Design the sequence.
């Protein structure tokens, strides 16, 4: 069987770099494209080191329709995975046009190029944020989406709809949306990982930066939620497990195994973990004490959300394998390596 080529937009970022490694390991040729607006070349270099070879890297902006078309002219692309998007909830509230412009135009350009180049399999990187606050847990893919509470969340919903409608309208365009829960951790080699710019918004980078001394103290947002220990519950999914779900989804598309032309899968563990449980697990597995304190609730946080991953387990043949402890050990190893470099 001839090798298949996967284009990874945003391939130098946190999720994109881990997905690139797993795709390459599974025998795909990967073309990485990134405009480096939210990352440097650290992860790209790490990917090449892990794989022991240089991968093609194209510096480009997916909002540039001409450049996207030229990319599809130059490569026979069997599938494209779209990660190139802004992802900070608070920033999206302050700069909605920046978010709508970047996140929607880039995706429209990709699908447009795909359809004018004879069709393509398109994998969209969506989020559990589309479910919003829900009473029925765990969430399945047929759980209703709630109106988005931020422009960022809205771009995820709109992009899902763009993909669904394009698949229905254009011959040869097929699509999968993967709804991620909370991706955390780093590659076991500690050569690639999360590199937030400025003060991290997400929990685990804030934990590791506090442990390494870059931040003074972690604020735990809210201690009076209606959960056992009063802190929010999330479904933390290991980044390598998450990356492997992409390989399963790409194979399903390029091998013609899809049951519908547009499909949605939750990518989570099915295991709710509270903020305090996560902190305790981090301290225990890494044998250290974290400086943290309770702080008021953060606006927009949902109390609890975790996945029912059954559809992905059965249809994609994918299951999350790594424990939260292993994942937190990997996140810490990555942070320490970064600190050693500084
Ligand atoms: C957030 C976004 C989600 C996005 C995801 C990307 C919101 C409401 N949701 O998910 O749309 O897809 O990031 O990774 O912003 N926490 C603290 N202290 C901190 C940081 C976080 O206590 O310094 C708590 C939060 O209150 C939450 C949990 O940790 O309960 C996880 O937070 P975070 O990592 O930011 O992810 P989400 O908010 O679940």
Sequence:
């Amino acid at each position: 069987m001839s090798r298949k080529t996967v284009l990874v937009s945003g391939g130098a970022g946190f999720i994109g770099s881990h997905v690139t490694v797993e795709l390459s390991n599974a025998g795909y040729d990967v073309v990485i494209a990134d405009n480096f607006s939210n990352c440097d070349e650290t992860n790209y270099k790490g990917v090449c080191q892990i794989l022991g070879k240089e991968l093609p890297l194209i510096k480009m902006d997916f909002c540039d329709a001409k450049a996207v078309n030229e990319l599809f002219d130059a490569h026979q692309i069997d599938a494209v995975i779209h990660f190139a998007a802004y992802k900070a909830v608070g920033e999206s509230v302050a700069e909605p046009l920046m978010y709508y412009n970047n996140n929607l135009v880039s995706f429209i350009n990709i699908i447009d190029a795909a359809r004018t180049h004879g069709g393509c399999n398109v994998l969209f990187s969506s989020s559990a944020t589309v479910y919003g606050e829900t009473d029925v847990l765990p969430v399945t893919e047929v759980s209703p989406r709630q109106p988005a509470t931020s422009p960022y969340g809205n771009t995820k919903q709109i992009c899902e709809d763009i993909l669904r409608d394009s698949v229905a309208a254009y011959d040869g365009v097929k699509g999968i949306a993967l709804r991620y829960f909370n991706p955390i951790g780093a590659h076991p080699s500690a050569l690639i990982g999360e590199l937030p710019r400025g003060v991290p918004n997400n929990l685990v980078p804030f934990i590791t930066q506090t442990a390494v001394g870059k931040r003074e103290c972690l604020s735990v947002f809210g201690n009076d939620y209606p959960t056992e220990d009063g802190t929010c519950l999330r479904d933390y999914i290991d980044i390598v497990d998450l990356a492997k779900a992409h390989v399963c989804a790409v194979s399903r598309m390029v091998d013609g195994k899809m049951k519908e032309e547009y499909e949605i899968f939750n990518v989570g563990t099915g295991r709710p973990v509270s903020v305090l449980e996560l902190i305790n697990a981090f301290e225990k597995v890494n044998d250290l004490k974290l400086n943290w304190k309770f702080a008021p609730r953060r606006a927009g946080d949902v109390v609890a959300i975790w996945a029912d991953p059954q559809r992905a387990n059965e249809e994609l043949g994918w299951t999350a394998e790594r424990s939260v402890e292993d994942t937190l050990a990997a996140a810490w190893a990555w942070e320490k390596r970064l600190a050693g470099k500084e």
User: Anything to note?
Assistant: The first helix runs from residue 14 to 25. Residues 87, 89, 127, 129, 153, 182, 201-203, 206, 218-221, 232, 234, 275, 298, 300-301 surround uridine-diphosphate-N-acetylglucosamine (CB under 6 Å).
